[in-house]
Amino acid sequence: MKITIIGTGYVGLVTGACLAEVGHDVFCLDVDQRKIAILNSGGIPIHEPGLDEVVARNVAAGRLRFSTDVEASVAHGDVQFIAVGTPPDEDGSADLQYVVAAARNIGKYMTSFKVVVDKSTVPVGTADRVSAAIAEELKSRQSALDFAVTSNPEFLKEGAAVADFMKPDRLVIGHANDTQGLRAQQIMREVYASFESAGHKIYWMDVRSAEFTKYAANAMLATRISFMNELANLADKVGVDIDAVRQGIGSDPRIGPGFLMAGCGYGGSCFPKDVQALVKTSQEYDYELKILRAVEEVNENQKHVLGSKIFAKYGKNLQGLKFALWGLAFKPDTDDMRAASSRVLIQELLRAGAHIVAFDPVATEEAQRVLALDFADAPVLLNQIHFARDAQTALSDADALVIVTEWKIFRSAELETIKSTLKHPVIFDGRNLFDPRTVKSLGMEYYPIGRAVLSQ
Ligand code: UDX
């Protein structure tokens, strides 16, 4: 099957590479010449485990190509995936200008029936806007060509995107029930034929429900995290171990064990943006999503939880103190710094006069880029932060270790070594990586999230 992917960002590149992997003939289009040049010279513009191999294998097999040529790319695919960015507007709603521009290009250059697939996370009703944009372009060309717009949201997790794509929990595809919509359904069934025959279930539904499903999934996951974070904050006050509670409730199949880890807040490109966008959609329909507003507020507060614990111990003035900071990315196995909790903590610590020596296995460069923006009003403060080449170097001479991202190498670090390298044996752990009893038994001060009862 001939497929075009519009947008070679995170979602587009993974989708393109993985669809080539199952045998399709894929053309990836991007307006960013720099990105296409990197891809055409064998590089990968993002950090995603395993993606480089899939890309290399399929480029070599001639099934995967990258181009900035809009006309040739649109002409190529019978199926056109729109996988461009939908950044939040100032008011929190999703900015659809790139989605609409992609639709216009399809309308402008298509020469045969096209199935258009909304892959980007887009609010309910976007398929109608995509349809309208394509129809308008066709009309201005006086073309009678047919097309159908479907919705096929992605549920990829950064750091596990290739595996998530190749072995999806489920596929969600929304299509219309008219003649073109049913034709599109048949074509989409072919696109995902190898997944269906491997036992991965496709949930067929109407387009709006498919669009909404993506937001509902992310909103539910974000709600679980904020819910556990609120309980963790209370657990610290009432003398309860939140991790014991997590296991106790997670064993109930109605609740399930995933996404119940308390911590210093969620970040990334999806949860914050999608929760906000859904709240915004509800407002447009004169309905208030009270729970999701609270989820967002709790999460913003939770990004300050490590700072609060640090201020409670040292006071508001942190001058003369040096903190080792482990983890900058919003989660492990990515260099993504979008909405990362580390950014809030770094703001708090540097503005209070502290020094930081930070280490992240892959996100240092990206962190330097975003911190320059975060501190645009006071760039001199960035003289107080340095970046270490490995985890242990960051510890030396520090008054405390602060953990923000749950990288595996941090979890497996030797507590004895941490203790002997730090100036003072103090750990603020935003991801509950260690057993508080063990840390305590080594004579270290430990500040986890919602587990104070075991560490005091
Ligand atoms: C998420 C969804 O999981 C994915 O299905 C969707 O397609 C995109 O958004 P992603 O943003 O890559 O994926 O990250 P995820 O692994 O879900 O983690 C998000 C954040 O939640 C991280 O900051 C993580 O540290 C935090 N988290 C996760 C918790 O604080 N507690 C948990 O129990 C799980």
UniProtKB/TrEMBL annotation:
Q: What is its EC number?
A: 1.1.1.22
PROSITE patterns according to UniProt: PROKAR_LIPOPROTEIN
Q: Tell me yes or no: is rRNA processing among this UniProt entry's keywords.
A: no
Write down the chemical reaction(s) this protein catalyses. Answer: UDP-alpha-D-glucose + 2 NAD(+) + H2O = UDP-alpha-D-glucuronate + 2 NADH + 3 H(+)
Q: What class of enzyme is it?
A: oxidoreductase
Similarity annotation: Belongs to the UDP-glucose/GDP-mannose dehydrogenase family.
Name listed for the protein in its UniProt record: UDP-glucose 6-dehydrogenase
Species of provenance: Undibacterium macrobrachii
